[in-house]
Backbone:
């Protein structure tokens, strides 16, 4: 089904605004939750409960002086944060916020770009996102930045493999229980729809895949316990040591947008997306049903983001060799075995 | 955007990128132009209606392989080479390379029958399901042979790179 241009535009603007609204809220939530976990107060001066703190931070970043170290290539130095932010935001385009909406005889899926290779688009974009960090590290002309950029590129390559393999175990599951008896699909909308049809979320069918994918997602978004490219105790600030003002702000935005996007992908792949057990199915809905679905999706997204933040303030950082060992010697073999087992169960007709 | 405009645009991107890969002296810049070139090729796949190939092109080449390239270049910290002028030997080898290239291209320019569009081996829309079924059923044996070749390359690389054991002559 193809939409008229204005519907596509409305959807694009809506998802863009949704993500960009979530980012400052997330920054605030992170600071408040960490304060709560560490028995501190946290930001509470600007606005009620510190709710205007992100806005104040934004204004500060916009008006700060921008420093550029001597001898850096200006174009790449400026392009790096932009790449990081764009790639994170782009990922949200293939994430379905709801099922099929039917208004006045016209039906549309609640996703910006319902591409049939949605899952691959997610992987491709996340693998391009690393250029932002690696180039930022290289272009800064500083040893700490370069080390951060180097670490980031090696880390991304290592954990992308696990991510792809754990994804495959989900794709094997999509093959059956599809409404139209389709052959399986790479579209995130179809993956959610197949979970809604069968009523069982993928996390129940392959818990190991969920665990592996989530861990890899933490590594891909450079969040603790995998924030080695940044590692402020060893590398000052890692890849963004030399960045200031809004260029640093863009890196910041990119990191939180990536958090939102990868949480959204995890929710779609494993936690049933907009599906609420015993209430909604895969059929098309009107406006109230659509609002319910989006509400369910956002609730799951926020819950997973809380988990994201909780992990950051619970676990210490990995050492670099531990990170590589975990990626190549534990997670990769586990992902292969998981794929084999899931495939075997599907072939035996268990799922 | 129709197919022709898209093709011209993206092939221009791919060609300019490829040209800059060999013309840049800074290795990092050259690698980045190669990424641009790969993205252009992905664009060509998109205009031909294959989102699958485009996504895989970006994921494997622009994403994984070039990141690895960049990693190695950054790790080695290469110096930007200075231009040393064209010596006689260099000029001769440049000329030989150009002549060989032209010679290889000549049949395609000369022979009209080679310019006709290639007939696809399998006439199906390029979807993930079709590609998978074709690869693992009709072309299962060539597919396995290719993976064996890759395995051999991998074992070879590990053998070359690993440290010799203490009791073993280097």
Residues:
């Amino acid at each position: 089904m193809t939409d008229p241009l204005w519907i596509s535009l409305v959807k694009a603007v809506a998802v863009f605004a949704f993500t960009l609204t979530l980012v400052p809220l997330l920054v605030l939530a992170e600071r408040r939750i960490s304060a709560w976990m560490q028995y501190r107060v946290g930001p509470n001066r600007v606005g009620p409960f510190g709710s205007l703190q992100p806005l104040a931070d934004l204004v500060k970043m916009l008006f700060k002086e921008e420093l550029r170290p001597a001898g850096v290539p200006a174009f790449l130095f400026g392009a790096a944060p932009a790449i990081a932010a764009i790639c994170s935001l782009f990922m949200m385009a293939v994430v379905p916020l709801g099922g099929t909406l039917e208004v006045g005889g016209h039906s549309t899926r609640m996703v910006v770009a319902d591409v049939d290779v949605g899952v691959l688009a997610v992987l491709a974009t996340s693998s391009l996102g690393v250029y932002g960090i690696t180039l930022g590290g290289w272009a800064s002309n500083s040893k700490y930045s370069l080390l951060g950029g180097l670490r980031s590129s090696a880390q991304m390559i290592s954990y992308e493999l696990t991510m792809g393999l754990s994804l495959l175990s989900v794709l094997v599951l999509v093959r059956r229980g599809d409404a139209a008896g389709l052959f399986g699909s790479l579209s995130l909308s179809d993956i959610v729809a197949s979970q809604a049809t069968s009523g069982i979320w993928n996390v129940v069918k392959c818990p190991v895949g969920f665990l592996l994918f989530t861990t890899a997602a933490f590594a891909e978004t450079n969040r603790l316990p995998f924030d080695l490219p940044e590692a402020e105790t060893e590398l000052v600030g890692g890849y963004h040591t030399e960045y200031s003002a809004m260029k640093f702000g863009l890196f910041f935005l990119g990191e939180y947008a990536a958090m939102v996007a990868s949480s959204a992908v995890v929710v779609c792949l494993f936690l049933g997306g907009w599906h609420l057990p015993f209430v909604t199915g895969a059929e098309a809905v009107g406006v109230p049903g659509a609002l319910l679905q989006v509400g369910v999706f956002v609730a799951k997204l926020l819950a997973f983001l809380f988990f994201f933040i909780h992990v950051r303030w619970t676990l210490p950082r990995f050492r670099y060799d531990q990170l590589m060992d975990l990626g190549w010697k534990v997670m990769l073999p586990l992902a292969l075995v998981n794929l084999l087992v899931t495939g075997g169960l599907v072939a035996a007709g268990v799922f | 955007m129709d197919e022709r405009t898209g093709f011209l645009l993206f092939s221009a991107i791919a060609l300019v990128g490829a040209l800059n890969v060999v013309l840049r002296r800074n290795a990092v810049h050259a690698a980045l132009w190669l990424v641009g070139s790969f993205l252009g090729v992905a664009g060509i796949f998109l205009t031909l209606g294959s989102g699958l190939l485009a996504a895989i092109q970006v994921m494997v080449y622009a994403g994984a392989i070039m990141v690895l390239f960049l990693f190695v270049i950054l790790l080695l910290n290469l110096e930007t080479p200075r231009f040393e002028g064209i010596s006689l030997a260099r000029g001769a080898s440049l000329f030989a390379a150009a002549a060989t290239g032209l010679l290889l291209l000549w049949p395609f320019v000369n022979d009209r029958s080679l310019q006709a569009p290639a007939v696809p081996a399998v006439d199906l829309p390029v979807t993930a399901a079709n590609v998978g079924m074709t690869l693992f059923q009709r072309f299962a044996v060539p597919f396995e042979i290719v993976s064996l070749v890759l395995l051999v390359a991998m074992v070879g690389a590990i053998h070359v790179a690993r440290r010799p054991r203490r009791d073993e002559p280097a």
In short: Chain A touches chain B through 27 residues (CB under 8 Å).
